[in-house]
Specification:
Layout: E1 6-8, H1 22-30, E2 36-40, H2 51-55, E3 59-63, H3 67-76, E4 82-85, E5 88-89, E6 94-101, E7 104-107, H4 114-118, E8 128-134, E9 146-149, H5 155-159, E10 168-172, E11 174-175, E12 178-179, H6 183-192, E13 195-200, E14 204-209, H7 217-247
Parallel strand pairs: 2-3, 2-9, 3-4, 5-8, 9-10
Antiparallel strand pairs: 1-4, 6-7, 6-8, 10-14, 11-12, 13-14
Length: 249
């Protein structure tokens, strides 16, 4: 049976800024207007990847397991078009242990996550909590046409159980020295389902469904440029960590 512990948010104050507008601005430039958007792993509302779509009153589904973030979402989102699911997306229905470390909330036991790789996160008892775990297929009605997934290493668990075939998929794949532990599975799924890489930023890769959004020569050149920037950032991070480990600073 589908997971039904969800509700429409009706309290709080309107948001006033978009700190993460790249996805929205790119879709506007491409002339793509989604009818149903989703974000798995919201953290704070004003850093949401789909912030401006929500402001435009697009039908929206949010998924977030962290109680602190959930409270902020309830306080700040006041649009009747937004439905929130308080859960972590996993391969099963039940309970799951997570760790909350600043802006990173991740499933304990993952082979890798940004907090583990970039920040040498040591999981403390005070940072761990238990959340409801559900499969994404329980809440995906097949009509999502844009999705943003930022679950700190468990993005593959969303993709592999997704019923929809969105025109746009934004997914956290890298950042610092971190590489998504399921990057091979993600790339294979994208290729098998006719998705093309449109752009990258410092942490995300945005894929588009072939024949729905054009990938131009300029887009391909920009991808090369971003690739060089990402590689340089990784080099700097590794050098910095090496110096820190050597001199203890």
């Amino acid at each position: 049976m589908p997971y039904t512990n969800s509700y429409t948010l009706t309290v709080g104050t309107p948001m006033t800024k978009n700190c993460n507008a790249l996805l929205y601005d790119t879709m506007k430039q491409k002339g793509f207007t989604p009818k149903y958007v989703a974000e798995v792993g919201v953290w704070h509302p004003d850093t949401s990847n789909i912030f401006s779509f929500i402001e435009d009153r697009v039908k929206t589904m949010l998924v977030e397991p962290d109680p602190k973030s959930i409270q902020l979402i309830k306080e700040q989102f006041n649009q009747p078009n937004v439905v929130l699911h308080e859960a972590a997306i996993c391969d099963f229905d039940g309970q799951i242990e997570l760790c909350s470390r600043e802006s990173s909330t991740f499933v304990i036991g993952l082979p890798s996550s940004p907090a583990l790789e970039n920040d040498n996160c040591n999981i403390k008892e005070s940072e761990s909590f238990t959340a409801k775990a559900i499969k994404f297929s329980n809440i995906d009605n097949g009509n999502i046409d844009l999705i943003s997934i930022d679950t700190e290493g468990s993005e593959w668990l969303v993709i592999k159980n997704m019923i929809s075939r969105p025109s746009v998929i934004s997914i956290e794949t890298h950042g610092g020295i971190y590489i998504n532990p399921y990057i091979k599975e993600l790339k294979k799924w994208m290729a098998n389902n006719n998705y093309t890489l449109l752009l990258k930023n410092k942490s995300d890769s945005v894929y588009v469904l072939e024949d729905t959004i054009s990938v131009t020569v300029f887009d391909k050149i920009n991808l090369l440029r971003q690739g060089f920037i990402i590689t340089f950032r990784v080099f700097k991070k590794r050098i910095s960590r090496s110096i820190k480990n050597k001199f203890g600073k």
